[in-house]
Amino acid sequence: MQCESARFGELIVRPRFATQGFRENAETELLAAQIRDLVAEAGGVESLITPRGYRHLGLAILDAVFSLQAQYDRVVVPLLKRYSNEVSDQFWMRWDDESLPEHKASDVLRQLDRIGDRGFEVMNRQKVNGAGGVAVHKLHVVRSLAEKLVDVGGDSIKEFHELLIVEPEVERQVRNVNGVGEACWRYLLNLTRMERVKPDTRVVAWVERAIGRRLGGEHVAELVETAVLRVQPALDVTIRQIDHLIWRKESGRQLGKLERGETDCSS
User: Could you read off the pLDDT of 66-107 as tens digits, one per residue?
Assistant: First the structure.
């Protein structure tokens, strides 16, 4: 996996396939055309929303796990608020304040220990498919993911990003955590402001409809990333902007602006 510095201090991760077959190239071109049309429908590049992501790895972990197969505004945002209120009265209101110290993966572990038996009350009892198709509570996935990141030396966002540059095996180690699949892994990268697509069910549906065949989530994400790179010489857009734009289109939201009560930290 190759990483390089990009605009605004973000990291961009290049798609893994450097060459494409005839069909993949044709599908990339088709998708690039659909992306251009979608940007125009949104009102142009200047109207696109860039999700802020998080400057706290702890919140990115929670969001990446609990947003899996969940209604974001109705379930995930209230959960993040409840958790943040357990951290401090002002944490949710100030989570993007640069003066606040980062809430790291190790802070999540300490917070979960402090919450103790109230974990399901503060979070929820939702489950996600784990190893062998056996469902596992998302709360347990959060703890295991945080433990793994601390264990490999990726406690903070800076440490996590640096690990991805020098230790390619980190991805395999983290994705081996029970309950952490392709969507969760990619969303964790996206939420920490790396240029990756999350193969959300809505993004997958939009891409499959655009190209006219069913694909796996990882293939969808790779196609979108490559298509964005294809349009970038003409359109000043980022992968995260287009990922969010597709998600907004497929979820029936206004394309060029946030709706009332909506957070822009993620999709």
Answer: 999 899 989 999 999 999 999 998 898 888 888 899 999 999
Are residue 119 and residue 230 in the same domain, yes or no? no
Beta pairing class for 135-137 and 127-129? antiparallel
Same domain, 42 and 127: no
Give strand ranges (E) for the chain. 3-5, 11-13, 127-129, 135-137, 194-195
As a whole number of angstroms, the distance between CA 67 and CA 70 comes to 5
**Which structural domain range is residue 131 located in?**
57-192
Count the domains in the chain.
2
- Residue 249 CA to residue 160 CA, distance in Å, equals 31
Output 21-29 pairs: Cβ under 8 A, ≥24 positions apart.
24/223, 27/211, 27/223, 28/223, 28/226, 28/227, 28/230, 29/230
Q: Is residue 255 part of a domain?
A: no
Pairing between β-strand 135-137 and β-strand 3-5 as defined by DSSP bridges = unpaired
Q: Which residues contact 207 (CB under 8 A, 6 or more apart)?
A: 31, 215, 220, 223, 224, 246
Alpha-carbon torsion, ordered 206, 207, 212, 214, to 10 deg: -100
C-alpha span between 83 and 65 (Å, rounded): 14
* Shared domain check, 109 and 31: no
At residue 261, the pLDDT reads 52
Q: Quick one: 169 and 149 in the same domain? A: yes
Q: How many alpha carbons lie under 13 Å from residue 125 in its C-beta half-sphere?
A: 3
Prediction pTM value: 0.86
Residues 48, 117: Cα–Cα separation, whole Å: 42
Helix axes 201-211, 22-42, angle to 10 degrees: 110
